[in-house]
From TrEMBL:
Residues 27-261 form the ABC transporter domain. This is ABC-type polar-amino-acid transporter. It is found in: Cell membrane. Keywords: Amino-acid transport, ATP-binding, Cell membrane, Membrane, Nucleotide-binding, Transport. Its EC number is 7.4.2.1. It catalyses: a polar amino acid(out) + ATP + H2O = a polar amino acid(in) + ADP + phosphate + H(+). The keyword Thylakoid does not apply. It is an enzyme of class 7 (translocase).
Amino acid sequence: MSTTPAGTPRPHDPARPGTPEDPSDVVVVRDLHKSFGDVEVLKGIDLTIRRGEVVCVIGPSGSGKSTLLRCVNLLEEPTRGSVLIEGEDITDPDCDIDEVRSRLGMVFQQFNLFPHLTALQNCVLAQTNVLRRGKAEAEKVAQHNLERVGLGGRGDAHPAQLSGGQQQRVAIARALSMNPDLMLFDEPTSALDPELVGDVLSVMRLLAKEGMTMMVVTHEMAFARDVADRVIFMDGGVIVEEGEPSRVIGAPEHERTRAFLQRVLDPTHVDPGAEDRKYAERHRTNVDGIVPADISGPA
Ligand SMILES: Nc1ncnc2c1ncn2[C@@H]1O[C@H](COP(=O)(O)OP(=O)(O)OP(=O)(O)O)[C@@H](O)[C@H]1O
Ligand SMILES: [Mg+2]
């Protein structure tokens, strides 16, 4: 039990996940289960993300990382359990999910930019549609965020005129333009050519430094190690272990974590491409990149 007096922010304690929530907690997931048909994909997840915390979720292909992230903004409806965003239970049928989603930025592997709109217009659209900002103000916010991601001079470009890394940075600027309290990233760099990954990770590092609360599903172990306050290793629909990156990545306690890290980190491992092949197989029929119209504006 927490002995912190009511109203006093509790110190950040990554070693005690799932402890009683604090009003300042951005995400509280309790006993989350998710099944697709007969297949139980999430088998009881408990997770708390404090304001300003950067949490990286790692784990093998098919372990349920994307499903967990999608439950956090109700793109998937949990079968059991609850998800609280800033104290509000989004699994409650009375919850105004569109309002809650307007406080969450989501960045997918696929960038989901509108091809017929410029970079600036892509960043303006949801601001005017969802937040009801005036055009001039929305453009100012959009321009500011394009500058933040290093694309201040490319507002007039259409997505087809931009590299994959630039498009992903526009997608991040678009999410930031909604002034989110939480940014959710699902493998934002895994569709990019290796030479374009660095710029996107740099932007994410900057956001982390600025104090943005972030939940990042990633295969980028160096990023997780350097930037995360806490790393969560998932396997088979459960959190196997979590803690400071230096411990989870540097000195994992569980055999499953060790085996996964060996597969992804050790180039001399007997089958170094196994994780990549599993990933490619699963994503041949990828459902992760779909953004429902209600959070991305008109189709
Ligand atoms: N809409 C769906 N319908 C049926 N099964 C699904 C659906 N979405 C995910 N699954 C299944 O749930 C399991 C977990 O999928 P999920 O996408 O969450 O894994 P992941 O950890 O993100 O994997 P990856 O690293 O490949 O992205 C997989 O077995 C997947 O096939
Ligand atoms: Mg995934």
